Amino acid sequence: MSSDNTDRPVQKAEFEKVLDKADVKVAEFRQEGESLLKRLQNALHSHPTAIPGVVLIVSVVFFSLLIGGRFLHPFNFSLIVQQVMIIGIVGIAQTLVILTAGIDLSVGAIMVLSSVVMGKFAVDLGIPAPLAIAAGIGVGALCGLVNGLLVTRFRLPPFIVTLGTWNIFFALNLWYSASETIRAQDIEEKAPLLIFFGQSVEFLGARLTYGSIAMLLMIAACWYVLNLTAWGRHVQAVGDDTESANLAGIRTDRTLLQVYVIAGIICGIAAWALIGRIGSVSPQAGQTANLDSITAVVIGGTSLFGGRGSIIGTLLGALIVGVFRNGLALSGVNVLWQEFAVGVLIIVAVAVDQWLRRVSR
Asked: What is the pTM of this model?
C-alpha cells in the first residue's frame, strides 16, 4: 500500500529572488557626507598613539633645527632615555590603573618606600642584596594590595584612596629611614647589586644604562599582556564600562585588585632602578614621580576616563617630556619655563582627549 506522498509530483525548491532594479549594496553604517574633521577624529580615536608619535617627531625636528649637533648627538639621546627611565617605569604602573578609570597618586611614595627598605635591609642589616631587593618589591606589592582592597572592598574613590595612602606611605618612609640618606660609598661596598641598573653599556655610540633597557623590556612585556591576553582585554573592559564588564562575566573586583598589586610590584622595580639612577638611597628622592607619571600617561594619549590608551603611548609621552626639558635646557631656557611648557602640554593633551571622547557619544 503506497503513501499518498508518492503520487505527488516533486517540486523544485524555490529560492528568494532579488526584486528587479533593487539596491544590492551591503549595508554601511558610516554616515553620509561625513566631514574630513570627523573622519580624522574617528581615526585618532582608534589610534591613541598617533598624536603623541607626531608630537615627538615634530619636537625632535624642531630642537634639531634650533640647537643643531649638540641635540642630535647619540650621547644626548641616550641621556634623554636615562632621564625618563624612572618616569617610564612608574608610568607603566600608572597606565594600568588609569586604564581601569582610576588613578594612583601614591606610586612615587611606594617607589621611595621600597627603595628605603632595599637600602636598609642590604646596607644596615647586612641581608643579602637579592633578598633585600625582593623584600623591597614585596613592600611595593603590599602597598598596592592596600590600595586595591580599599578601592574594591570599601568602594572608595581611587583618587581619595591613593591621596590618603600617598601621605601614609611617605610618612612610613620618613619614619623607617629616619630621614637619613644611605651613601653611594656604603652601597658600593656592601650591596653593589643595588646600583646594577645604573651601570651602562655602549650601543651605537651611545651609552644605555641597564635601567633604560629594563624599562624598554617592561614596556614590551606590558604591551603584549594588554593587547594579546584575555587579562589585558579585561582590564580595558573594566575601564570602559564596569557594568557591561560584569554582565560579560568579568570579575571586575578581582581584576582591579590585581591591577593595583601589579602596579605596586612595578613601583618596587622602579625603586631598584631609582637607586641605580641616583647612586644612593634617599627618602627625599622621586618626590615628583606621582605627577610625572600621570603627565607621561596623559600626553601619551591614554584617556583619564579609562578604557582607551596604549603603553607605547606612555613611553612616547615620557620621551616627549624628556625631549622638551632637554631641548629647552640646551637652549638656555630657565627651569621655570621648562615646567611651564610641560604644563601647557598636559592641558593640550587633556583637551584633545575630551575632543576625541565625543566620537563615542
From this structure: 0.86
pLDDT tens-digit series, residues 205-228: 678 899 999 999 999 999 999 999
Contact 49, 313 (CB under 8 A): yes
Report the pLDDT averaged over residues 172-193: 95
Quickly count: other Cβ atoms within 10 Å of residue 288's Cβ: 13
Per-residue model confidence as pLDDT tens digits over 80-136: 999 899 999 999 999 999 999 999 999 999 999 999 999 999 999 999 999 999 999
What pLDDT is stored for residue 8 in this prediction? 54
Check: CB of residue 105 under 8 Å from CB of residue 163: yes
* Virtual torsion, Cα 274, 276, 282, 286, nearest 10 deg: -20
- Work out the angle at residue 63's Cα, subtended by the Cα atoms of residues 61 and 66, and round it to the nearest 5 degrees: 110
C-alpha cell read off for 302: 591614554
Q: Which residues lie across from 281 on neighbouring strands?
A: 182
CA separation for the pair 234, 282 (Å, rounded) = 37
| DSSP 8-state class, residue 162 | H
Domains and CATH numbers, the chain: 68-348 (1.10.3470)
- Residues facing 203 on adjacent strands: 206
Measured CA to CA, the distance from residue 307 to residue 314 in angstroms comes to 15
Alpha-carbon distances of 20 from 24, 103, 144, rounded to whole Å: 10, 59, 67
Give the residue carrying C-alpha cell 575601564.
239
